[in-house]
Design a protein that fits this description.
Distance between the termini: 51 Å
Number of strands: 11
Number of domains: 1
CATH architecture: 3-Layer(aba) Sandwich
Order of helices and strands: HEEEEEHEHEHEHHEHEHE
Helix content: 25-40%
Structural class: alpha/beta
Number of helices: 8
Amino acid sequence: MGIVTSSMAAKLAFFPPDPPSYRVAEEKGTRKLRMMEVVEKENVDVLKLKTKRGTEIVSFYVRNPEAKLTLLYSHGNAADIGQMYDLLNELSLRLRVNLMGYDYSGYGQSTGKPTEENTYADIEAAYRCLQDTYGVKEEDVILYGQSVGSGPTLDLAYRLSRLRAVVLHSPILSGLRVMYPVKQTYWFDIYKNIDKISFVQCPVLVIHGTADDVVDCSHGMQLWELCKKKYEPLWVRGGNHCDLELYPEYIKHLKKFISAVEKLRENPRSSTDQTDKHRANADYREKSSTSTDRRDNSRKSMDHAEKVNNNAEQPESTRSDINQLNSIQMA
């Protein structure tokens, strides 16, 4: 029963776009990698990374000359980084951060198959690249996980004691809890975020739509309650699962969060044991913020939906246009 349920949960968790939205080509002479079907940018590096599980994943790194911090973005279950390319470049610009996006094994032009364990190896490879290739320190990293991406994000976050911050965007408590109203964690569950969140020692921002019909807002609320270092959450009034970027409060609140964590001072590392990590030097528990802004109905979605609920046999249709955040009024 457990194996069958776990296999079903994993099957319903991943919807890699078919065909992928992009190709990767190598420039003759320079061996520089390029993502085809997207606009080439001078400040973007395209990379292929080996994981400890033997797969090769595609990622890209966006440099922002004004950045103090670096954001590692784990996308949702029905998009690849070709579809996320414009949005992530826009986030780098708006938030003034360096940013790395990556595809899970089996997504885009990454090899292998998408599995829970592979996604853990995937984010580790991306994080290792930030350190080894770009010299990014752990204390200057913000992990950002969207929906299913909250799984690899929290798995890495609960094992690192000096992260600057974590952002959970429409996160899940666990795979089975999306599909069934279970009250306990079973051994065969996937992405057991509910059991990991309390080990995260850095400030955590949770963003969730109150009208999310794929992953109920209660998932985000419960994870926020379990955080050790709570930052003011954003409950987007009327927001669904795949449209939160369209609300003005989304980017405003993210900018506020980035500004706050930029001011944090690094504390000495007190222990290498994951259950005895250092405490941050600021108390981030604040009252929750609920967006009263309505989304711009003229703008189309910028990503894919996550389908891991009772209607999960088919993913939501891809978002046909990426206008990004250009029309959002900034604070």
